[in-house]
Amino acid sequence: MPRHVAIIMDGNGRWAKRRFLPRVAGHRKGVEVVRNVVQECAERGVEALTLFAFSSENWRRPADEVSLLMQLFVSALQQEVERLHRNGIRFRVIGDISRFEPALVALIDNAQQLTAGNQGLTLTVAANYGGRWDIMQAVNRLRSAHGGDREQWTETQLLPYLSLGDLPEPDLFIRTGGEMRISNFLLWQLAYTELYFTDTLWPDFDAKALAKAIASYQQRERRFGRTSEQVAVAPDAASRTARG
Ligand code: IPE
Ligand code: IPE
Ligand code: MG
Prior knowledge:
The protein contains nine helices and six strands; from the N terminus they run βααβαβαβααββααα. The chain is an alpha/beta fold. The mean pLDDT is 95.
C-alpha cells in the first residue's frame, strides 16, 4: 500500500460539458468524489493523501468560476470538517492562502487547529499552490532563519521548510482527466514518485478507479537509482537513500 498518495483532480469542466451542464456542476460532483476518496484511502491505511484543488495559475480562469470555486471550498469546509475530525483525520492546507478572503482563511485555520492532534490519515489540500512557489518560499524561509548569512545549504536543511516536509514523500501520483503533465504541482516532492495517469474524469473517479491506480503502483519496481538485483537483495535500503 502506498504510504502517501498525491492527486491532481482534473476533468471537472469536461465532465460537466459532456452533460451540457455548467462547469460548476462538475466541481460540485468533484467535491463528492473527494469525500469518497478520502474515506477509501483512510480505510486502506494510506497515511497521507494530498489533493490539488486550486493552482496558483487557476486565478487566470474567468472571475465567476474562481469565485464559485472559492464558495465551494467554503461550503465544503463548513460541511465536512466535523466529519473529518470524528474520523480522526488530520486536515491541512498548503499554498499561499494569504490571497483568500478572511472568512475562508479563518475556516482553514479552525479546521487545521481542530484536527491537528488527530492520528489518522493526513489530508492535505493544495490551494493557491504552485510547486515553484513552494521551493522559493522554503529557500526564503531557510535564509531568514539563518540570518541571511551566505552558507551552502543542503537538501536536508531545506526539507523542513518545504510543504509536506514532515511527511513521507508521495509514493503514488495520480492525475485524472487524461492530461500527462504536472501543472506546477509538487515539483520537489515528486522526484521519485510513481506516476499514474488516467483518462477517467475526476467526477467519475470511484473506488474501483482508485483500486486500479493502487494495483498499478504495486506492479512497479522502485529502484531509486539502484539496479534491479540490488533492490531484490535489500528492498528497503533503496528508499532509505532516495534523498541522497
Ligand atoms: C479540475 O477540473 C478542477 C480545478 C482545476 C479547480 P478542471 O476545471 O480543470 O476541468 P477541465 O480540465 O476543464 O475538464
Ligand atoms: C491542475 O489542473 C490544477 C488542479 C487540478 C487544481 P488544471 O486544469 O488547472 O491544469 P492545466 O491548466 O490543464 O495544466
Ligand atoms: Mg483542467
